[in-house]
UniProtKB/TrEMBL annotation:
It comes from Acetobacter malorum DSM 14337. The keyword rRNA-binding does not apply. InterPro entries: Fe2_transport_prot-B, Fe2_transport_prot_B_C, FeoB_GTPase, G_FEOB_dom, Gate_dom, GTP-bd, P-loop_NTPase. Gene3D superfamilies: P-loop containing nucleotide triphosphate hydrolases. This is Ferrous iron transport protein B.
């Protein structure tokens, strides 16, 4: 009887084995990203058309070191491989990807998979790097010993997955015979390594070791990390600006064009000011998000990011966390949404929860328009010590306040957790990132960001538009129209509570649309103060108005408020999506608003004490 051809296969392997690069080669742009049913673990599936014209579905499972799951990602991988995940059909073939440069470690997981008794194909990835190390792997012998087909691949090289494509055009191999019950996997690995791996050259390249002497050095390594972070943030906040301006101009022109097609009235206001302006609020920050992800993906594929997490493990340990929290918190400087999403890789549930709770304290890019407006209006433009710009020092202090506060909050939340969570992670070989893989990953991140966040902000922007537009003021009514709207009335109702921290009713009104996205507060203030201009011009015109109407204490109080306040519904929505808990959402709201009010209260009254 002829064996069936594979219709559905699953790529599985250890982290850093190059599995995702192979998945991108095999599927290209024909892939979809979603979540597994009932959990927030990312599900990546794509289609491959083989040379014979057959269509094969390929599933990229989350990386794991063992079938003994310690995180939601690993639990999904385990259950899918076993064919017991609810709503997920069992794959016809498991493709076990092994990093050939670290065969001893990765073979263990392959042997665990073999024990499942399911059809398997083993892929030795990065085979070119093995040869450069002066080693040779006897592939036919390894295949005979394992009883599983073995092919080689180069995930970052064009055409490097050809052997996998060819294998998928053949019949499903029979399930391998498992090892005897209670067999020692480590002894089996040593036996396979002795039989199948030999050194072909006495020259043993030490490139990784030599580079690690600098990268992992306690002084020079930290300096290298700081330089890379400095360049990355310069890229995020400087290189993205031309693209952001282009997108902002495009959205403005779209709004003007649509406005000319629609008659004056509620529908035009809804489409232009609610839908288009709401979407533009998200889209304009997309270049910053993509540039940040480009850096993170490039550093990850190069093998550097795990080393950065290792370098910062001691610093994170002072807050009760591990170095694994560094990457999500780093992502949160662009936007807390992808930062919170990336906590899925944190194995310890309590560490993941604490990282999610402190991610909003990282100063995201949406705060910058508010910071820039208030600093320009109230902080003198002069140098300190003849070298440092005072505006830059104040901005740095705001960033530092968020980071230090996050470490303190994490320490408080973890004070009863006396269990140590040492950071154990594989340091992969250095490699050049693949351009195709980077482009596909960026495209997927852009789609995820726009679909998950854009719809939320557009919806909330429409709600805020309605609050700011209705009811309309009576004919001949004095003052701005917003003063008569529901938003204006709410602002006056909020005033008794916020007067203690120096806010006026105009600030209260601006906080309302700012709940949809922090940067909207600038246009909210422009509306309240009747500044009719685009957001960029509004900031220029607002600065002298605010300095004339507000005290220095009020301005500093609002800056302190924006360091802590959860003025971003999309962040709260993602916390709910990632944790599945409304309780954690309310915990975030209460403690962040509490910190914001306390910080603003202290800032306002201390500043008043010194300035009168």
């Amino acid at each position: 009887m002829t064996s069936p051809l594979p219709q559905r296969v699953a790529l599985v392997g250890n982290p850093n084995c190059g599995k995702t690069a192979l998945f991108n080669q095999l599927t290209g742009s024909r892939q979809k990203v979603a979540n597994y049913a009932g959990v927030t673990v990312e599900r990546k599936a794509g289609r491959l058309t083989t040379p014979s014209g057959r269509s094969v579905q390929i599933l990229d499972l989350p990386g794991t070191y063992s079938l003994n799951a310690t995180s939601p990602d690993e639990a999904v991988t385990r259950d899918v491989c076993r064919g017991v995940y609810k709503g997920e059909p069992a794959p016809d073939l498991l493709i076990s990807v092994l990093a050939a440069t670290n065969l001893r470690l990765h073979l263990r997981f392959a042997l665990e998979l073999r024990q499942l008794g399911r059809p398997m194909l083993i892929v030795l990835n990065m085979i070119d790097a093995v040869r450069k190390q002066g080693l040779e792997i006897d592939v036919p012998r390894l295949q005979a010993e394992l009883g599983v087909p073995v092919v080689t691949a180069i995930g970052v090289k064009r055409g490097g997955a050809a052997s996998i494509v060819q294998a998928l055009d053949e019949a499903v191999p029979p399930p391998p015979a498992p090892l005897p019950e209670g067999a020692d996997l480590h002894a089996e690995i040593r036996r396979l390594m002795a039989l199948c791996v030999r050194r072909t050259s006495t020259r043993h390249p030490q490139f990784d070791a030599k580079l690690d002497r600098w990268v992992l050095h306690p002084v020079w390594g930290m300096l290298i990390l700081l330089v890379l972070l400095f360049i990355m943030f310069q890229a995020v906040f400087s290189w993205a600006q031309p693209f952001m301006d282009l997108l902002q101009s495009g959205m403005d022109q779209l709004g003007e064009f649509v406005g000319t097609l629609l008659p004056e009235g509620i529908l035009r206001s809804l489409i232009v000011e609610g839908v288009i302006a709401g979407a533009g609020t998200v889209i304009v920050f997309l270049p910053q998000i993509l540039i940040l992800f480009l850096w993170i993906l490039a550093l990850e594929e190069s093998g550097y990011l795990p080393r950065a997490a290792f370098m910062l493990d001691k610093l994170m340990a002072s807050a009760g966390l591990s170095g694994r929290s560094f990457i999500p918190l780093l992502s949160s400087f662009a936007c807390a949404v992808p930062g919170i999403m990336s906590t899925r890789t944190i194995q310890n549930p309590r560490d993941r929860m604490v990282t999610i709770l402190i991610a909003p304290l990282m100063t995201c890019s949406a705060r910058l328009p508010v910071y820039a407006l208030l600093i320009a209006a109230f902080v003198p433009s002069r140098t300190v010590l003849g070298l440092l710009n005072l505006h830059g020092l104040v901005l740095f202090a705001l960033y530092a306040a968020g980071v230090l506060s996050a470490l303190v909050v994490a320490r408080v939340l973890k004070k009863r957790d006396t269990e140590e969570h040492p950071l154990l992670m594989e340091l992969p070989s250095y490699r050049v990132p693949g351009l195709q893989s980077l482009c596909i990953e960026l495209w997927q991140r852009a789609r995820i960001f726009l679909s998950r966040v854009g719809t939320i902000i557009v919806t909330l922007s429409i709600i805020m538009w309605a609050l700011s537009s209705f009811p309309a003021p009576p004919a001949g009514a004095p003052g701005p129209a917003i003063d008569w709207s529901l938003a204006g009335r709410i602002g006056h109702l909020m005033l008794p509570l916020f007067a203690f921290i120096g806010f006026n009713w105009q600030i209260c009104v601006a906080l309302i649309p700012g709940l949809a996205a922090r940067e909207v507060a600038v246009s909210g203030l422009a509306t309240v103060y009747s500044v009719g201009a685009s957001e960029g011009d509004a900031a220029t015109q607002l600065a002298p108005l605010l300095s004339a109407h507000w005290s220095l204490a009020t301005a500093f109080s609002l800056l302190a408020w924006y360091v802590y306040a959860p003025q971003c519904f999309s962040t709260l929505a993602v916390i709910r999506r990632e944790t599945g808990s409304w309780r954690l959402v309310w915990v975030s709201v209460v403690y962040l608003f509490g910190l914001a009010y306390l910080a603003s209260f202290l800032t306002y009254h201390i500043t008043r004490f010194f300035t009168g």
